[in-house]
Amino acid sequence: MSQPISRRGLLKQAGCGFGYLALAGLAAGSSDDPLAPKTPVLPARAKRVIFLFMQGGVSQVDSFDHKPRLALDDGKMMSFVDSRLLANTGMGESTQRVMKSLWPFEQHGECGRWASGLFPEINRHVDDLCFLHAVHTEGVAHGPATLFLHCGAANQVRPSMGSWVLYGLGSENANLPGFVTIGPSSGNGGARNYGPAFLPAIYQGTSLGKAGAPASKATIRNLTNSHLSRDTQERELDLLRALNAEQARLRPGDTELDAVVASYELAWRMQGHAPDVLDLAGETKETFSLYGIDEPATENFGRQCLLARRLCEQGVRFIQVTYGDSTANPAWDQHSNLPKHGDHARAVDRPIAGLLTDLKHRGLLDDTLVWWGSEFGRTPYAEKNGTGRDHNPNGFTVWLAGGGVRPGFAFGETDEFGLKAVRDKVHMHDLHATILHLLGLDHERLTFRYSGRDFRLTDVGGRVVHEVLV
Q: What is the dihedral sign for C-alpha 178, 176, 208, 198?
């Protein structure tokens, strides 16, 4: 007597069988998989990026851009010209009160870099950091500037940088998302800051938690199913594969459908891998202490940074970690209470230093690029003669570490007050071009044709800042 055919066998042999095989190949990471690893077009120094986004605008003149002139002229009413005033009032020049840094500056490390007491733990790592002191960007408000930071444009819906990287390089790990955003904000562009826009939907970032929520709750919803056995879930997936294959046959070229199908396959694989990666319980007490998870002030961001390291170890290509407390009030946005910078610095300083130490100890810093920065900086004068600083897109500081950048190095200068980039300026498009270059991608060739035009992250600008490369 012949053996009864199994349900899975029937699906393989039935009309949807070829679709089943195609999807099974996708699940195994076949060459047709849009997330399969791609060979960089240039020699790559970094395999992945961890972007530490300080939402709201860290003051460069209170952190890493030492300006003695501020102390000399503290309290004086002086004339300043900047694009923020021009955008708000139509007049670019006004009289403002100079305000010195609230945190004293000292030289640190063998390189002798000047840095304030705002970030004492990060200052211990200055010999590993590459400072860009003359970054400038587009947009004077948080929304446009944040979108420009993440997407290279503020006036159109464009793909986020992580999506471009995933599109250009694919994923190193078929069992995890290639682009993850930890604690993203729902404001100032929201999901657009990790969205694919007109790129195929498969390149969407996967969010873990949200800004202002406990990082201990940051996970992927419905990752496990305790109600059904593995065999039952597998049989359900087989049926889903067959149905999806028929839909794919009827709707060829539908990238959104393809993304949904691929997401089911990835979700299935993630069930066996992601829970372990997201579970910090196996980390040692020493590691928790390194990241500040043993202290209330640093526990939340410490968890985010440790999770970033764990994802980095597993080959996640682009990880962005947001420090932000609410949609209405971005964390570092101190217009009237600059001392609040100190509270935010205490929350991130030890976790970031711990991340740098951990990456270096594990040999991951060599091929991981760590990028720290905000959407813009802040003014060297007191806003409205008060106790805070206004937005400043004209000249601010970003630092990079690892992944092929020159350690213990500083590039570019702002003017004597720290208001405007004046020498070796780095536009945000230049920064994007440089990061892509370190990943082995040519920013001018990484394009996608949409609506009759070839788009790229750097639009029609951008240059690689070779001066900061090893």
A: positive
